[in-house]
Design a protein that fits this description.
With 106 residues, this protein is an alpha+beta fold. It has helices at 2-13, 67-76, 83-95, 97-104, and strands at 18-30, 36-47. The protein has a two-stranded antiparallel ribbon. A hairpin with a 5-residue loop joins strand 1 and strand 2. The chain is globular and about 40 Å long. The two termini are 27 Å apart.
Length: 106
């Protein structure tokens, strides 16, 4: 899985990073007439010094936020975030906060 994740980073963001596997989780979300998701997600942490160049056939837009800014947006407007991301961010903070902070420190 780690090698596939590295390939996706290169394909979608044109970056390389040393990755640390953190955990896997399963989730299911129903989107009414639009469909549903039932997925197993692997969570990795990593850091890069590469310039991010989004593959526009994969990603419409990117932006950078601090962890505090991200949390404030999640608290204020949770409907703008995917169900899996909300689960992932909450678990990273609650169960893996020490590891996450290691990557957030500059």
């Amino acid at each position: 899985m780690q090698e596939a994740t590295r390939r996706r980073l290169r394909d979608e963001l044109n970056i390389a990073a040393d990755l640390e596997f953190v955990y896997k989780f399963a989730y299911q979300a129903d989107f009414g007439e639009s469909g549903a998701e039932n997925e197993l997600c692997s969570v990795f942490l990593g850091r890069t010094s590469d310039e991010i160049v989004a593959n526009r056939s994969e990603i419409a837009a990117i932006r950078s936020l601090t962890a505090a800014e991200l949390q404030a947006e999640l608290d204020a407007d949770p409907q703008y975030f995917t169900p899996w991301f909300k689960l992932e961010w909450q678990r990273l903070n609650l169960e893996h906060g020490r590891r996450l902070r290691k990557y957030l420190a500059l």
